[in-house]
From TrEMBL, chain A:
<dbReference type="InterPro" id="IPR025966">
    <property type="entry name" value="OppC_N"/>
</dbReference>
<dbReference type="Pfam" id="PF12911">
    <property type="entry name" value="OppC_N"/>
</dbReference>
<feature type="transmembrane region" description="Helical">
    <location>
        <begin position="32"/>
        <end position="52"/>
    </location>
</feature>
<dbReference type="InterPro" id="IPR000515">
    <property type="entry name" value="MetI-like"/>
</dbReference>
<keyword id="KW-0813">Transport</keyword>
<comment type="similarity">
    <text>Belongs to the binding-protein-dependent transport system permease family.</text>
</comment>
<dbReference type="GO" id="GO:0005886">
    <property type="term" value="C:plasma membrane"/>
</dbReference>
<feature type="transmembrane region" description="Helical">
    <location>
        <begin position="142"/>
        <end position="167"/>
    </location>
</feature>
<feature type="domain" description="ABC transmembrane type-1">
    <location>
        <begin position="94"/>
        <end position="285"/>
    </location>
</feature>
Automatic annotation (TrEMBL), chain B:
<dbReference type="InterPro" id="IPR030678">
    <property type="entry name" value="Peptide/Ni-bd"/>
</dbReference>
<keyword id="KW-0813">Transport</keyword>
<feature type="transmembrane region" description="Helical">
    <location>
        <begin position="571"/>
        <end position="594"/>
    </location>
</feature>
<feature type="signal peptide">
    <location>
        <begin position="1"/>
        <end position="26"/>
    </location>
</feature>
<protein>
    <submittedName>
        <fullName>Peptide/nickel transport system substrate-binding protein</fullName>
    </submittedName>
</protein>
<comment type="similarity">
    <text>Belongs to the bacterial solute-binding protein 5 family.</text>
</comment>
<dbReference type="InterPro" id="IPR039424">
    <property type="entry name" value="SBP_5"/>
</dbReference>
<dbReference type="GO" id="GO:0015833">
    <property type="term" value="P:peptide transport"/>
</dbReference>
<dbReference type="Pfam" id="PF00496">
    <property type="entry name" value="SBP_bac_5"/>
</dbReference>
Length: 301, 604
């Protein structure tokens, strides 16, 4: 303690310590580690797809392999009904699923956090109004609403993100509101208020930092459900027709009659892709929850 | 507390599943009872009935049913599409070809026992001439009618304004006057009160929207009753489900198979495949600047597509061989003239001089020469500077549309044209086509043996009225085409008419508003253990379903197995699957309950 420590420096060193401690706890969750490792690999592959593979193989007018061929040396996962490599489609499909999953989850979490924090912080009629609004969305069947939205709007990436995002935020809002309520009862918030901290100061400096870890864990879980929602919408033919996604692959497999033809190599890769990515996100989300909520740690933690 | 809820849930799950098993096991008994009386022909459909009202319905599913339950004056032979008598036994026309007299068959009855008379025919035609709603589906046949009268019960006299060559192919379902005269608003009448009063080989007796339509054989049909007892159309959401149902013996005929399914069914036991020449053309419309019947421009068509040079260049960027080979799996014929080759006399193929073979460099040169130059981003622009970005509207539920869209998008990108695929619902496709709200759209029609119906779609008078409505196709509206159309309609010499029809197709081809990509073959399969050979139309390379008459269903030959009502579903498997589901479901619920208890213990 030779140099005079500024509050900022103290805050940063504390954050560093917390992070290290969190990582220590996280590491103990074997499932979380597996999920994280899988995600790192999948995200790296997806990001590097244009570098590692030739994207022109997705253009139906540029391929000449025979359609619906079983796996072979030249096409490790066989070909689709247009002669495109299923491996290449699955690879590029990961990009779409991840992008939509992350974007939709981000949108959903932002809406949910804003509504939740505002409702809990202001209380009174603001809370009543916002929470009834939330309840309204909570009881709407999300998938049906998403289908209706993507039917009405022009099809495309943005529409799917919007459709999933605006239908999946109510749970986050309720969770964040509950957490905000408990945080706001703590003495240091009261102190900040007594010292003249305005709404912006209390929410920005105290409430949000305390709530964000929980939000982060929720986001990870929301991504998983957003990816499933995206696949469902694409499977129903409501996806972005100009991009390859796992849901869209399953749809074309069904449309072609892959089931009748026994073309398992066309159905399995996108299905497994969805399962693995969703599982990874869920594992990570669970592990994060344990990190941020000590009460969830098992006996002997 | 938590445990109780879980237990309650598990119990209610069980309770909910038990009746399902009960009904599944009870079903075969009921099916067996039905089967005792005779054979049921079950046809899988992947299209819904747009309307059971014969004045409104124009989907293939609906028009097929109308042919089975309502009479027409004449019909088409199964053998070769020749005109044969149906409700009319004979006909003659005056020397000026303006007055036609039909003699109505004696002793034909409506299904409620009333006789079918010439007054019913006159009533039907007059209703279509005076009530615009009643002209929705088949208005083209009566546009040119001046008067229809029934001097007595057996005679119908039709006077036309101009000679009309389609007088022996009036595919208009005749409806009973004593029923329909009580209907004030045809547009709002669903015609779903069962049984539907009609007259034909079958009577519609039960309709479950989006599920099935059941028809009973009419024992009094004048040609004699059909050999089957019942005909049921069963709706399926997707074709794989229909194929699985065929394999399991839940249905007897399935239509509109994908090439993959058709290949996969080769050699399947008890299943016979039928590949028929299609009477449908598959077309891409390039919006040539849509106008309504008042000549006012409508819609959002791209200005570049008003230039015939651009439309022709686009045609040269389409490789039809690849489409037939890849999208149709070889089960189809290359597109050329407007009318499909199944109608050999009217079919026209562009001569070499007018052909536009696949050649992307040539298409690029043509666009350069026409002044549509590439911008810095590689996209071509009109001379006014508008980039060539086209919206391509497709049927979202049609796999073929999606695949054709992919190919066209790929080829046109090499011309410096950006295509955005817009798969939408069938209704939206129709709405946007009628409103001219597209740059490119996929269309296609099943042609009749008489080409008039589809030829008229390209005339100026097919354009929508300012208030909406109308059934336009490519908004061609070309004076020379309309002149050829009018002349073929008035031409009674078959050879001369054929020549005019071919000239009209040639004009349509050179204007390139609609690009005929291919004529898909019709792929069907049926249970050969339950039915013998079907009557196809035409006899060579014909189809069972979607005929231009009722032969396929009416002359179906059930085997003794079908009459005994066997060869149905294996309900044992269904029960087994359900049983497994219950056991698994119970197990999972139990496990969850245990886990819940454990974590609850930890928490407290």
């Amino acid at each position: 303690m030779s140099a005079p420590a500024t509050p900022r420096a103290i805050a940063w060193s504390r954050r560093g310590a917390t992070l290290a401690e969190s990582w220590r706890v996280y590491r103990r969750d074997r499932g979380g580690l597996v999920g994280l490792a899988l995600l790192v690999v999948i995200v790296a592959l997806a990001v590097l797809a244009p570098v590692l593979t030739d994207g022109s193989g997705l253009n139906v007018t540029r391929v000449d392999a025979a359609p619906l061929q079983p796996p072979s040396a030249s096409h490790w996962l066989g070909t689709d009904e247009s002669g495109r490599s299923v491996l290449l489609l699955t690879w590029w499909g990961a990009r779409m699923s991840l992008v939509i999953g992350l974007a939709a989850a981000a949108l959903s979490v932002v809406i949910g956090t804003v509504v939740g924090v505002l409702a809990a912080h202001f209380g009174g009629w603001t809370s009543t109004l916002l929470m009834r609004f939330t309840d309204f969305f909570l009881v709407l069947p999300a998938l049906v609403l998403a289908i209706a939205l993507s039917t009405v709007l022009t099809r495309g990436l943005g529409t799917i993100v919007l459709a999933i995002g605006v239908t999946s935020w109510p749970q986050t809002a309720r969770l964040v509101r509950a957490q905000t309520l408990t945080v706001e009862t703590r003495p240091y918030i009261e102190r900040a208020k007594a010292l003249g901290g305005g709404h912006r100061h209390v929410i920005g400096k105290h409430v949000l930092p305390a709530v964000l870890p929980l939000v982060f864990a929720t986001t990870t879980l929301t991504v998983a459900s957003a990816i499933i929602a995206e696949s469902t919408l694409s499977f129903l033919g409501l996806g972005d027709p100009s991009r390859v996604s796992w849901g869209a692959m399953l749809k074309s497999a069904m449309d072609t009659g892959a089931v009748t033809a026994g073309a398992w190599w066309y159905l399995l890769p996108p299905g497994l892709g969805i399962a693995i990515v969703v599982l990874s996100f869920t594992l990570c989300g669970r592990a994060l929850e344990t990190v941020f909520n000590p009460r969830l740690r098992g006996v002997g933690a | 507390m938590g445990r109780k809820i879980v237990a309650l849930l598990a119990a209610s799950l069980m309770v909910a599943l038990v009746p399902a098993v009960a009904t599944a096991t009870a079903a075969p008994a009921a099916a067996q009872q039905d089967g005792d009386q005779g054979a049921t022909l079950r046809v899988g459909l992947q299209q819904e009935f747009d309307s059971l009202n014969p004045f409104l319905g124009f989907s293939l599913a609906s028009t097929q049913v109308f042919k089975l339950i309502y009479p027409t004056l004449t019909t088409y032979a199964a053998e070769d599409f020749g005109v044969v008598p149906d409700l009319a036994t004979e006909w003659k026309h005056s020397r000026d070809e303006l007055t036609w007299t039909f003699t109505i068959r004696r002793g034909v009855k409506w299904s409620d026992g009333e006789p079918v008379t010439a007054h019913d025919v006159a009533y039907t035609f007059n209703r279509m001439m005076t009530d615009p709603a009643a002209a929705t589906a088949n208005g083209n046949y009566v546009d040119n009618f001046a008067a229809v009268t029934a001097p007595d019960d057996r005679t119908v006299v039709i006077r036309t304004e101009k000679p009309q060559a389609t007088m022996l192919s009036l595919a208009i379902p005749i409806v009973p006057e004593h029923v329909w005269s009580k209907i004030d608003d045809v547009a709002d009448f669903a015609n779903q009160r069962m049984p539907i009063v009609g007259s034909g080989p079958f009577v519609a007796t039960e309709y479950r929207p989006q599920q099935s339509l059941t028809l009973k054989t009419d024992e009094d049909f004048w040609r004699g009753p059909a050999k089957i007892d019942e005909l049921r159309f069963v709706n399926f959401e997707n074709s794989d489900a229909a194929v699985q149902a065929l394999r399991k013996g839940e249905i007897d005929v399935v239509r509109k198979l994908t090439p993959t399914q058709f290949d996969a069914l080769a050699g399947a036991s008890n299943i016979e495949r039928v590949e028929g020449q299609g009477r449908r053309f598959f077309e891409v419309i390039l919006n040539p600047g849509a106008t309504n019947s008042a000549g006012t421009p409508i819609g959002t068509g791209h200005p570049a597509l008003r230039d015939v040079r651009v439309r022709r260049a686009i045609d040269r960027a389409i490789n039809r061989e690849v489409l037939v080979e890849r999208v149709l799996g070889g089960y189809g014929q290359l597109g050329g003239g407007y009318l499909p080759p199944i109608f050999a006399d009217y079919h026209w193929t562009p001569p070499p001089r007018l052909k536009r073979p696949f050649d992307i460099p040539a298409a690029n040169r043509a666009l350069d020469a026409a002044g549509y130059l590439r911008g810095p981003d590689g996209t071509r622009r009109t001379p006014e500077g508008e980039p060539l970005n086209f919206e391509f509207v497709l049927h979202g539920d049609e796999p073929v549309d999606a695949r054709v869209g992919e190919y066209l998008k790929g080829w046109l990108s090499r011309l410096g044209i950006n295509v955005t695929l817009q798969p939408v619902s069938d209704n939206q496709v129709n709405e946007r086509t009628t409103a001219g709200d597209f740059d490119m759209v996929i269309s296609g029609w099943s042609a009749n043996p008489d080409p008039d119906y589809v030829l008229r779609l390209q005339t100026c008078s097919a354009r929508p009225t300012p208030g909406g409505g109308g059934l336009p196709d490519s908004f061609l509206c070309d004076r020379r085409y309309d002149d050829l159309y009018a002349r073929q309609l008035a031409e009674f010499d078959h050879d001369k008419r054929v020549e005019l029809v071919k000239q009209a197709q040639r004009r349509f081809h050179t204007q390139a508003t609609g690009l005929i990509l291919f004529y898909p073959n019709s792929l069907e399969a049926y249970r050969s253990d339950r039915f013998g050979d079907f009557t196809t139309q035409p006899a060579d390379d014909g189809v069972i379903t979607g005929q231009q008459s009722y032969w396929g269903y009416y002359q179906a030959e059930p085997t003794s197995k079908a009459i005994a009502g066997t060869g149905g579903t294996d309900y044992g498997t269904v029960a087994l699957v359900l049983g497994v589901v219950i056991v698994l479901g119970g197990g999972v619920t139990g496990l969850v309950a245990l886990r819940r208890r454990a974590t609850a213990g930890d928490r407290e």
